[in-house]
């Protein structure tokens, strides 16, 4: 039994994000580590973290949520997430969900991700499902084929 066994999964995930949070300027054009995220693998239950990296040119940006998912994929070849938390200097409170690009990424990565829980309020443990953030998603037809 580990010390983390006494913490709920959201506390474990939040603690994991804190290790990644240390905003820094990589160059005069690029910032990193000012948004952090953790995903829990639906396959193994392991927690994977990521941090954002943003440049002056928007096409180079990588959100923390997608970096966490890519870390999961690199480690276990899996893109199905059970849970997601993203934050800055404090735990999520009163909302805060992944951007549209991240929502779309998770929807396209695996049909099962529509059931992914996204923490919107750490204090109350309030969550929302990804499918509720993208009702009537355009890609449903492809998955049903």
Percent of residues in helical segments? 25-40%
> DSSP helix count?
5
Total count of strands: 6
Structural class: alpha+beta
Average pLDDT, all residues: 93
Characterize the overall form. globular
Q: Cα-atom Rg, whole angstroms?
A: 15 Å
Describe this entry's structure for a reader.
By secondary structure, the chain is an alpha+beta fold. The protein is 29% helix and 27% strand. It has helices at residues 9-18, 64-76, 100-109, 130-133, 140-144, and strands spanning 24-25, 30-41, 47-55, 81-87, 117-121, 126-129. Strands 1, 2, 3, 4, 5 and 6 form a 6-stranded mixed β-sheet that branches. The protein is globular and about 45 Å long.
How would you summarize what this structure contains?
The chain is α+β, with helices and mostly antiparallel strands and 145 residues long. It is 29% helix and 27% strand.
Question: Which characteristics define this entry?
Answer:
145 residues; 6 strands; 5 helices; alpha+beta
Write the SSE topology.
Elements: H1 9-18, E1 24-25, E2 30-41, E3 47-55, H2 64-76, E4 81-87, H3 100-109, E5 117-121, E6 126-129, H4 130-133, H5 140-144
Parallel strand pairs: 4-5
Antiparallel strand pairs: 1-2, 2-3, 2-4, 5-6
């Amino acid at each position: 039994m580990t010390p983390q066994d006494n913490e709920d999964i959201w506390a474990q995930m939040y603690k994991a994000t804190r290790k990644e949070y240390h905003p820094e300027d990589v160059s005069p054009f690029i910032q990193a580590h000012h948004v952090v995220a953790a995903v829990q693998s639906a396959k193994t239950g392991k927690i994977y973290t990521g941090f954002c990296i943003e440049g002056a040119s928007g096409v180079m940006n990588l959100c923390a949520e997608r970096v966490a998912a890519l870390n999961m994929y690199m480690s276990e070849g899996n893109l199905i997430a059970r849970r997601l938390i993203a934050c800055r200097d404090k735990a999520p409170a009163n909302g805060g969900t992944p951007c549209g690009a991240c929502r779309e990424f998770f929807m396209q990565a695996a049909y099962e991700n529509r059931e992914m829980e996204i923490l919107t309020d750490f204090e109350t443990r309030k969550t929302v499902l990804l499918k509720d953030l993208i009702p009537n998603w355009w890609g449903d037809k492809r998955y049903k084929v």
